[in-house]
User: Fold these one by one.
Assistant:
Number 1:
Amino acid sequence: MLIIRPYRPEDFPGIERVHDRARRVELRYAGLEDAFLPLRIAAEREDLFAYPGLFVAELGGEIAGFAACTQEELAWLYVDPAHFRKGVGRALAEHALQCFPGIRRVEVLSGNAPAQALYARLGFVTAATERGRMPGNEAFSVQVDCMERC
């Protein structure tokens, strides 16, 4: 049974495990494997715990994913690769959109076709592609597809 609930501090080891596994997959799609930073560093650099929406997905009592958002943007969405294609990512995204109906934007690393497909199913379309420095790891250049929802 899948449960989506607010993050609690004792969830950190679970979201750390999810992030560190899923982030490697995400970076591989974009050809940026060397840009990996563990959540212990990325969360601080990118101020993860300042987001007004921070949710975890539990599947069978285990943290299977998490999402973080503002009123306007779905900024973090990670699912443990062991739970890919089980509806966890979609459930997290739908929960965030329900709690924050003003969410209109998500950025996806170019090359991450599974994430782009998920967001497209939720009504997001690619509005622009931007190049810049990777947030939290500015030593790396990135290209992101900026997806918007009407």
Number 2:
Amino acid sequence: MTGAEVLDIASEGIWTLILVASPVMLVGLVVGVIVALFQALTQIQEQTLVFVPKILSIFIALLVALPFMGELMNSFTSRIAGLIISGF
């Protein structure tokens, strides 16, 4: 296996990681900004107010995005297993 092939596999792995993590991270970011804006507008500075909406929204995002995330991980793992079986 050449260095270029290793870099291609590593690059594909990083992109897979980004694509798998991005739906949940984006939902957490959006909900965090909305709650922070709500806190700034109402001047409610309760620290625990952020956690409940974030946890619920991330849980719902995981339920919705889990098939997409599983498909990406399955295709990447199948490709890596195929490379291992073929002897690189």
